[in-house]
Amino acid sequence: MLRFLRARGAGDAAEDILQDVWLRIAKARSGPVDNPRAYLFRAANMTMIDRHRSQTQAAQRERDWSETRPAGSEPSPESGIAASQEMAKVLALVDRLGARTAAVLRRHRIDGLSQRQVADEMGVSLSTVESDLRTAYRAMLEWKERSDEA
Amino acid sequence: MQVDDTIREQAASWAAATGDPAFEDWDAFTLWLEQAPRHAEAYDRTVAAVGEGVAILAAATPANDAEPAMPAAPRRRWLGGVLAMGLAAFLGLAFWRQGAPDLYTVETAPGAMRIVELGAETSVAIAGGSRLTFDRNDPRFASLDHGRALFTVRHDEDAPFRVTAGEAQIVDVGTIFDVRLDDEAFSVAVSEGAVQFNPEAEEVHVAAGQVLSRTDDGYRIAPVDIAQVGDWREGRLSFEDETLAAVALELSRATGLTFAVDPASADRTITGSILVDPVRKDPASLGPLLGIAVTQASGAWVIGAR
User: Do B125 and B200 share a structural domain?
Assistant: First the structure.
């Protein structure tokens, strides 16, 4: 488990993070677990995802803070329309994925169905669902990279 | 780049696989991560991007627009907790946090002008030397910290646009209005629709063609030429019974030059209208235009009574 956490980017903090993982499991656990090992890894992975998110948010706040103090020059372009523009970009991106891929993404990620359930419901193979999600995720990563550059 | 592309593809693939509750092959995932530190980075970036994108997608999709709901298949019980965590991690991504303000500030240099769009049909033109605060999570709010701004606001009965300026609150009633706040003046001029001023306290209705301004003993409402409201956007400044102190501030804001007032005549008032560009080129030309004295002293243009 420590090996996974280190590979996952936890570095020296791996042992502390493992503590967090245990706490988290203690809090969330509500019934018998039929694959404890996978369950543990999943919880550890979630902990790392949360960690990454709070770090990016802290960095974002840092940036916001410096944006409010323009260094003599014109303030950087910043506007409330940014959010709705991003929304339009995401919607366009999902449109471009095609109907099936978009439906797979929504059913799995918004409606919370497992990949197997999505495959059964739509009458496609599990590997089709996997490949659709891969395409969608890849497109979202590229969207995010572009929006961060801008 | 080829390498980056390969990693992106792999990261997307692992993000899709590990996002499924049924995923079990954590050893293979660990091995991939161990191959290069960049793998973990790419995976994190992908998961974060997808979380954000899906949160936007979910927020952008009206409930009745979604496909017919399918009865949720029974899930293994332990998944409840994990899914709750997972959903919090993925969907709860702080993009559309309602309630929690996410403020940002826009500041213009003197002599500059800027337009901030707040969604469809709502924009704020910001005069030079001004500062405003907006909320990323609430496009119907703005705070004028100091300076001047013209608000063109789409009226929405259910979500009125609110502007705070110092202690004052202005709520739109379908509107184009100009708000000004600095050391010398506070005013709200309306050119279209109306606003409610301080709805919690004085509750004054300011209609199109009226300007509300602060006086020593309260507020007063006076008529204003609609064409003059926000005319600073077209590079024109109009003064109606304004003190020279207030005029000096306006001129500094609009031209980017430094204007000061001769303390002896700071309270003298003038009425008039000028174009900003010619004044920027030749500040002395203000004299005959406004009937005032203009002198240059220690890097500033000093205006005063003749």
Answer: yes
**Cα–Cα–Cα angle for B157, B162, B168, nearest 5°?**
135
Whether residue A29 and residue B57 make contact (CB cut-off 8 A), yes or no, is no
CA–CA min distance A129, chain B (Å): 9
Q: Please give the tally of structural domains in chain A.
A: 2
Phi, psi of B266 (to 5 degrees): -60, -30
Same domain, B129 and B207: yes
- Whether residue B115 is contained in a domain is answered as yes
pLDDT tens, residue by residue, B176-202: 899 988 888 888 999 888 888 888 777
A129: domain CATH number is 1.10.10.10
Across the interface, whether the CB atoms of A137 and B73 are under 8 A apart is answered no
- Rounded Cα gap, residues A8 and A17, in angstroms: 11
Whether A79 maps to a domain, the answer reads no
The pLDDT profile of chain A, 150 residues, written as one tens digit per residue, is: 888 999 998 888 888 888 888 877 777 656 666 777 888 898 899 889 988 888 888 777 776 655 544 443 333 334 345 666 777 788 888 888 989 999 999 999 988 889 999 999 999 999 999 999 999 999 999 999 888 887
Rounded CA-CA distance B211/B209 in Å is: 7
Task: Specify the number of domains making up chain B.
Answer: 3
Does this complex have an ipTM over 0.90? Answer: no
A40 and A99 fall within a common domain: no
Residue A113: closest C-alpha in chain B: B72
* Chain A nearest C-alpha distance from B49 (Å): 5
For residue B116, give the nearest of A80, A134, A143 by CB distance: A80
A74 in a structural domain:
no
Look at the block and give the residue holding tokens 């550059």: A149
The set of residues, in sequence order, having a beta carbon less than 8 Å from that of B218 and lying 6+ positions away, is: none
Size of interface A-B (CB pairs under 8 A): 213
Query: Range of B204's domain?
Result: 103-226
- Considering the domain architecture, whether residues B57 and B128 belong to the same structural domain is answered as no
| Residues B291, B177 share a domain | no
pTM: 0.46
